[in-house]
Design goal:
Layout: E1 4-10, H1 18-31, E2 36-42, H2 56-60, H3 69-77, E3 81-87, H4 95-103, H5 105-110, E4 117-124, H6 129-143, E5 146-154, H7 160-177, H8 184-197, H9 203-206, H10 210-216, H11 219-223, H12 227-239
Parallel strand pairs: 1-2, 1-3, 3-4, 4-5
Length: 240
Amino acid sequence: MIMKKILIVVGSNNKCSKTKKFMENIKKNIENTNKYIVEIILLGDYKIEFCKGCGKCFSTGECSIVDEFIFIKEKMISSEFIILASPVYLNSITGAMKNFFDRLAYWNHLMMMSGKLGFVLSFTGLTGIEETNYFLRIRSSELGIKVLDSFYFIEKIDDIDYKSHLISKKVIESIECNYGHSNYNLEENFNYYKEFYCNKTTVEDLGHSDNEIKFWNQDWIKKVNSYQEFVMEINKLRRK
């Protein structure tokens, strides 16, 4: 049996991250099913520069920064499922997680993670759950990820063993019960980008990049009428 890969991205620069330790419990529980390979990435373990805002990625499809972030992108591409977990800092995501999304900004406009399923999780002392998970869900959807559920862990309330077991069980059940790769938010994002970019031929038409215009004006994209169809065609191209 071919085991599918789940990638967990922990948005922390803390080498002793409590969020990572919690996710390691979830990793162990999921891998005990012998159905999935689970890898955890701690952003703080990689040398990742801050986004410069130069815009090269929008115009060429390539980041101007050469660092270890490329390894994270490769791991995301090779995974079927992505879990984004962030500690709560000032009722929101961490700076490390924000820079993670900044460095992927041009992926958002291309919905580069189309076809992947995902989950989000916030780890907090007490507050900020809703704000953090909302941000993670929105950004994940913009990448093309179908978010199946949102989770949280509250240090002052939750038991680590019980909560990690419960979340692991829900992750597996959600994956196995899922049908399709689309939902309302993804269809809305797809329709917006398709309408926004299609039939534009130059940067002057739009004030945006050549790379995005070229992508959305491909003949095969013009022929699909929904995000679900878009994913089906994307998967065919990936298998070639």
